[in-house]
Design goal:
By secondary structure, the protein is mainly alpha-helical. It has a domain at 242-369. Helix content is 66%, strand content 2%. It is built from 19 helices and two strands. The protein has helices at 2-7, 23-29, 47-58, 63-74, 81-97, 101-112, 119-131, 136-147, 154-171, 173-183, 189-202, 206-223, 232-241, 244-251, 257-274, 277-286, 291-304, 307-315, 324-344; strands at 32-34, 40-42. Helix 17 packs across helix 19 (324-344). The longest helix is centred in the C-terminal third of the chain and has 21 residues, at 324-344. The chain is elongated, with a radius of gyration of 30 Å.
Length: 369
């Protein structure tokens, strides 16, 4: 209370001490009591919120001072983390109630930058905005606009990752994936790694897995030809998403399979064009995992012009196997791939296929967040 009085330049009470009513008596008349731990309790349910709102409405000119007071309290390490988070939540509640969401979002950025002393309270503010019926959209747009900046400060980046994972994923999981995908491209390794870890957790859900796979492939296809584009984030995410067992599950589905398969071929082809050695890497991962994945691998290599690398990978696939049985099995898988490459080059007496670059029917529109 002393901090608040100093913020608002509250005048000294000049009433003689003997003429002042007892402070405890005044509190009791208002239905308020203090206990031994120096905490204040209200005897009627809902009274605390009512008093905060009444005080807020009665003193609009003091809102700036209230904000400065809260700034000091949330940075005060003598208060427990729980108390500091309650202070942040209650200040956000009143500020949003009087339609000042921009001030709440400004403090999210300011508190995030204070050497992590107030980052948890910044997350509380942002969560309050997301949960608000009127301003939830503004909170989601705030996260999207900041996440698009790869030079975003690491502390704010960590706050955004945490809020996307804990709050936004529960209400708007698709939008959480979009924003975490953007944050995975942050220049700060700690932010990027945290975003990738949360994406791995979120995409255990099948629809979200497909959504992220499509986004990553689309970005590789759309930007892969640009010389200055840093494709490292998409390369790493594509690797995370392309375990053979999981991909085969998607490619066996009846609906939407064609669009996903086309995305995968074009995205992988763009990656092979930028890094020819990735052809060998994916061959080593996918050979022996089913013909459909081999066909994806072949189509990507055709579009990237890396069939010779793929052919060599098939020839060498049996090398390094531990037992004769494994060697024989690997040889059969490698020979299948070699025959597929021969067919693609027209060496089996048939015309080689032309790489399909058209967008398949039913391809969903790209979401921009």
């Amino acid at each position: 209370m002393d901090r608040l009085l100093s913020q608002v330049s509250f005048p000294d009470d000049e009433t003689p001490l003997l003429d002042r009513p007892g402070f405890q008596d005044e509190l009791r008349l208002c239905g308020i009591e203090t206990r031994s731990e120096r905490r204040v309790y209200l005897t009627r349910a809902g009274r605390a919120r009512m008093l905060r709102s009444a005080f807020w409405d009665a003193h609009p000119r003091l809102h700036t001072s209230f904000g400065q007071w809260v700034d000091a309290l949330v940075a005060d390490r003598s208060l427990s983390p729980v108390d500091r988070e309650r202070i942040a939540e209650r200040w956000a509640e009143e500020t949003l109630r009087v339609a000042n969401h921009r001030e709440v979002l400004e403090r999210v950025e300011v508190w995030s930058r204070q050497r992590r002393r107030t980052s948890p309270q910044a997350a509380v503010l942002l969560t309050s905005v997301l949960r608000h019926d009127r301003y939830g959209w503004d909170g989601r747009e705030f996260i999207y606009s900041r996440a698009r900046n790869p030079a975003l400060s690491p502390d704010l980046g960590q706050v955004l990752v945490a809020v996307c994972a804990r709050e936004l994923s529960a209400t708007h999981p698709g939008q959480a994936v979009v924003r975490l995908h953007l944050l995975a491209g942050n220049r700060e390794a700690a932010v990027a790694d945290a975003a990738r870890a949360e994406l791995a957790s979120l995409t255990t859900s099948h629809p979200l897995y497909r959504k992220l796979l499509v986004r990553v492939c689309d970005r590789l296809r759309e930007h892969g030809h640009k010389p200055g584009w840093d494709h490292g984030t998409e390369r790493d995410l594509l690797w995370d998403l392309t375990a053979p067992d999981r991909l085969n599950g998607v490619l066996r589905e009846r609906f939407g399979r064609t669009a996903v398969e086309w995305r995968l071929k074009s995205g992988l082809g763009a990656l092979f064009q930028r890094e020819r050695a990735q052809t060998r890497t994916y061959a080593a991962r996918w050979i022996g995992s089913g013909r459909r994945l081999m066909e994806v691998l072949l189509a990507a290599s055709v579009s990237a012009g890396t069939l010779s690398t793929l052919y060599t990978s098939g020839l060498r696939w049996a090398e390094g196997t531990a037992t004769p049985e494994q060697r024989e099995l690997h040889r059969a898988d490698g020979e299948l791939l070699v025959r597929m490459v021969d067919a693609a080059e027209g060496l089996d007496g048939r015309e080689p296929p032309v790489a399909d670059t058209s967008t398949p029917d039913g391809t969903p529109r790209k979401e921009h967040g």
